[in-house]
Structures are given as C-alpha cells and as structure tokens.
Amino acid sequence: MNILYLSLQDFLSRPFLKFSTLPFLISLVIFALLVYYSYDIFFSYIEDVVSGSFMAWFFSFSIVQFSLAFLSAIGGFFIVVFASVFFTMFIISFLTPYIVKKINQKYYNHSIQKEVNSLEILLKTFKFLLISCVLFAVATFLLIIPFVSIVIYYGVFYYLFHKLLLLDVLSNVLDKNNFDDFYKNSSPLYFKIITLVFFTLSSIPLLGLFLQVFYVIFLTHLSYQKILKLKANNNG
Questions:
Q1: 189-223 per-residue burial string, b: 16 or more CB within 10 A, e: under 16
Q2: Are 198 and 136 spatial neighbours (Cβ–Cβ below 8 Å)?
Q3: Which are the contacts of 217, defined by CB distance < 8 A and separation ≥ 6?
Q4: What is the pLDDT of residues 17-26, one digit of tens each?
Q5: Is 52 left (phi over 0), alpha (psi -120 to 50) or beta?
Q6: Does residue 234 sit within a domain?
Q7: Whose CB among 74, 135, 177, 188 lies 3.0–4.6 Å from 156's, allowing a Cys bridge?
Q8: Could you tell me the residue range of the domain that residue 186 belongs to?
Q9: What mean pLDDT comes out for the span 186-214?
Q10: CB 59 within 8 A of CB 65
Q11: Is residue 232 assigned to a domain?
C-alpha cells in the first residue's frame, strides 16, 4: 500500500490528531511568550547600552532603528521557528513508542526479539548534538560571510533534525541487530530526501509544529517497508 496514503489516513484519524494538537498548542504558547519577552528585553538592553553614549545619536536615526528591528526580527524568527520544531520533537518523542506500536499492530504485526538499549540511544543523541555544536561554531566563525553562514546554519539544523528524527523512529521500529546494521553505514538516500522535505515544511511557521506526528507516522511506515521489507496489511 502507498506509504503517503497510509500515513495521511493514520494522521487524520482521531487519536493521532489529538497527539498533534496538544504538542502544537504547548509549543505555540511557550514560544509566543518567548518571542514577546525576548524582543522586549533585547531592545531594553540596546537602549541601556547606547543611552548617554556617543552611539546614541547614531541609533536615533530612523533607518538605523528600522534596520536593527528588521535584523532582530529575522534572527529571532529563524531561531524561534527551529527551536520550537525541536521542542515539539522532544515532546513527540515520548509518544513515538505508542505511535509505532499502534501502526505495527494495525499493519505489520512485527515482533522485536531484542530491543535497542536506551544507553546506546542516549550516546548517539549526545554524539549528534556534539557534532552539531562543532558545526554551529564553524558557522559562527563564518558570520563575516553572510550567505555562507546562513547556508551552514540551515545545514546544521537539517543534520540535527534528520539524525534525531530517524533515531527516535528507528529505535522503536527496529530490533538491536537491524538498528546496528542501519547505523553501520550512512542512511539511504530516500531517508535523506524525505527528512529534507519534512525539514523544509518545518521551516514554515506553525506547520512544522503540527506535522511532527505525521513525520513519525510516515517514517515508521517507511522503515517497516524499506528496511524490514514488510507489507502493510490492515488488521483493523
């Protein structure tokens, strides 16, 4: 059966829509408050720094104030969008075992002989975060080259998104042997393409918050069918 069709069908069912709505609302409220207060604090700080100094006259120009507000909004938007996506991913990760279990029972009836060790998952998570921090540091040094640094930042966010999302799903779908075999090599191209599409969708405000459950559902079906070579049979 078509993976996209199955995923949409599952995602639009009542239980999974509930799972999508709750993290969406929590993330939306938290990050709306974060944007509001951080924006206010930032400009209060700028005013305190420049007031009474020789820079005050410079910041009094309308064009400077507009440019500062514009750059702050763009930077804040970029950070908040992706921070909210990763925060939602964190919330959804607690629901992933249930999502995978429901899909497995409904379509695949696959039994896991030996589960993936939790310590191994934590170590891989730490490894991905460490690599991302190094890449972020490189991107920060390249801020003098604006477009290059933006591309690198975007690439780092995608790397982390791809790695954490796959780790979350595969650690629940695969047994230890298949899990270890998968991570011996680079992930297949179709996984990279799919997660890149998901990451691009997540760049759209609010959409990335709401679709996290769909991402998990789709990758669960993809893993069962492409890695474990199972066929989907609707068992009710």
A1: eebeebbeebbeebeeeeebbbbbbbbbbbbbbbb
A2: no
A3: 7, 10, 11, 16, 99, 103
A4: 877 777 777 7
A5: left
A6: no
A7: 135
A8: 1-225
A9: 87
A10: yes
A11: no
In whole angstroms, what is the distance from residue 1 CA to residue 103 CA?
Answer: 14
pLDDT tens digit sequence for 2-38: 899 999 999 998 888 877 777 777 777 777 776 666 6
87 neighbors 31 (Cβ within 8 angstroms): yes
- pLDDT one-digit tens code per residue, 117-171: 889 999 999 999 999 888 878 776 765 565 666 677 788 889 999 999 999 999 9
> Would you say residue 231 lies in a domain?
no
Cα–Cα distance for residue pair 214/165, rounded to 1 Å: 12
Tally the domains of the chain: 1
CA dihedral 159, 165, 169, 175 (to 10 degrees): 30
**Residue 78 neighbours by CB distance under 10 Å:** 15
Calpha distance 228→222 (Å, rounded): 9
